[in-house]
């Protein structure tokens, strides 16, 4: 099989496409024929050497969609459509940047769909992070106002649609004014050009502040995002687009405004049941949700795909399709 292997942290050019034996699953593992996978910022950070504990060489990839090739237990029939995400994929063990991957059975979410693989490949991590942030973490309610910091990211674009469908008013941010049209077409009621400080801009629209904030940029803007919340509001940090994990000299009493709540969402800790994914796929099939796929690449183009992710030029998910 072909696999994109990285031997040393660094630039996209560190990826080497090489031939490897197809791995063999053992107890509680399944061999999956990968059909597509989405790219994620966490993979960019792992590629750069920013993910603690990752040993190289490594096949990256924290998510995939595909078909069961071998299930030693017989639980899944050959050809069963499955998706998988997180659980150590691409970090603790080799992930989805390959034609086949061996995965722990508990990570699999079986599904049925007639959608093309390039569409399905955009779903697992993007949907799980958007859904998990909005519902288990933020507990969004109809009629609320929601600020999405990092609105043109794949998660931000999907979260905007899901929140709008749920009856919320969405304020979405971008650093690039040329992306304003895409954000408005995606369902955002207010487009904010992000220069790093949005508190005054938000309060010019909603003087008391907003009800909820979904922080996808990360620690560099988190404090300002919390200042945008009304008393009793909730902020959820789910992304690190700015590639910063920590807050220097964190002082909670100074950092978090009084009565404002701060939580996080991490799909590595909480993943939705299979039925939640299947219901979402049905929404996409019915045209209720339109997935923002920025560009599609082949596995042979993995270097170019990571270069495109590095450029921050896209507005939506980058998908790699394996034929």
Automatic annotation (TrEMBL):
Pfam families reported for this sequence: ADH_N, ADH_zinc_N_2
Keywords, comma-separated and alphabetical: NADP, Oxidoreductase
Top-rank taxon, per record: Bacteria
Domain Enoyl reductase (ER) residue range list: 10-320
InterPro entries, sorted: ADH-like_N, ER, GroES-like_sf, NAD(P)-bd_dom_sf
A GO molecular function held by the record: NADPH binding
Protein name (Swiss-Prot/TrEMBL): Zinc-binding dehydrogenase
